[in-house]
Specification:
The structure is a homodimer of 196-residue chains. By secondary structure, chain A is α/β, with parallel strands linked by helices. Chain A has eight helices and six strands; from the N terminus they run H-H-H-E-E-H-E-H-E-H-E-H-E-H. In chain A, the strands form two sheets. In chain A, strands 4-3-5-6 form a four-stranded parallel β-sheet. In chain A, strands 1-2 form a two-stranded antiparallel ribbon. The structure holds zinc ion (2 copies). One zinc ion binds next to helix 4 of chain B. Chains A, B: GO terms for molecular function: DNA binding; zinc ion binding.
Chain lengths: 196, 196
């Protein structure tokens, strides 16, 4: 069978997505062309739209379509507390817990020397600049309680403490080895209260 | 967190893909925007290209970019034998076996009443037309040996035999290279019935 090149290209592009192997890519391509061509076009437009419009918030580094995200612009938030999380999903989990009214800094990753992800890749320089704006009194480090999350937390704490900033860490109420995103709300709320 | 709408749209479009849940969709969207915006654009163009250019072969129904696919146009193939398969991947598997020199008809699916996939959806009418072109002498049904594949095979055999066409089915049996000890009982029972 001489496969059509447009189909091959589609399978190759899908294979490039994280967690999608060649079999999944073939199944998805087949499904789209056979049963959901509208879905394929919607996805194409969504990809173009996201690439064109989604950028990083100038203050907290999360994804936004504006210069500064709505959370950072919210006058109700307590500007003295800055919570550092790995991802927007982790930020959303803390918001759902209802236990935090301050602002955030989203690393968009974590230190992972084995994957070549260092201090530059997760915007630590921007965090240090953000944390020394004169308003922030406490930086609450809410990176995951995984090996990489802990290493990231230590790198942050070391540098910020050296600059005289008050750094706390979520309490170990969060189960060790788990991603914040999957932790129940009560545990997150307690961990915020018990931060050390 | 007020998530940006372009990001939400991307996650929604990804969620629509088979086998992709909301967590996977978020992870993929995050990865593309954070680490592989070029990959997102390549995928968008591949989707557009495939939707615009990939259609069904007028003779065998498989995906192709031409009116008739290269296999159907190949003058070396034996036009007296027509092998019916569920998918292009199944066709490719038979090609790799090197055991078949005839032509194919690709159903692009199989009967699945529970999923609402009936005779119309898998192009059986086109198969019947194709099989009665005056050149085809034998239709070899190579749908899967699953419940749905067997039901599809029976529907095909019934209709074609009623029109006087010679219909055969791939033999059920013990896979080459396997120890009998490890073969499931149903397969052994079928291999006994179909012994040659
Ligand atoms: Zn922000
Ligand atoms: Zn063809």
């Amino acid at each position: 069978m001489a496969a059509p090149s447009a189909l091959d290209q589609l399978v190759d592009s899908l294979k490039r997505l994280p967690g999608i192997g060649v079999k999944s890519a073939q199944r998805i391509a087949m499904h789209l062309l056979q049963h959901d061509r509208v879905g394929a076009q919607v996805l194409a437009r969504s990809l173009e739209g996201a690439v064109a419009n989604v950028r990083h918030c100038a203050r907290c580094h999360t994804f936004t379509e504006a210069e500064v995200c709505s959370t950072c612009l919210d006058p109700q938030r307590d500007r003295r507390q800055l919570c550092v999380v790995e991802t927007p999903a982790d930020q959303a989990a803390i918001e759902r817990s209802g236990g935090f009214q301050g602002l955030y800094f989203v690393l968009m990753g974590r230190l992972s020397p084995l994957d070549g992800i260092g201090v530059r890749d997760i915007g630590l320089a921007q965090l240090f600049e953000r944390a020394t704006d004169g308003e922030v009194e406490e930086v609450i480090v809410a990176t995951g309680f995984t090996a990489e999350g802990e290493a990231t937390a230590q790198a942050i704490a070391q540098t910020l403490k050296a600059r005289g900033i008050n750094v706390t860490r979520l309490a170990r109420g969060v189960p060790v080895g788990s991603e914040l995103e999957y932790v129940d709300l009560g545990t997150i709320a307690h961990a915020l209260v018990d931060r050390r």
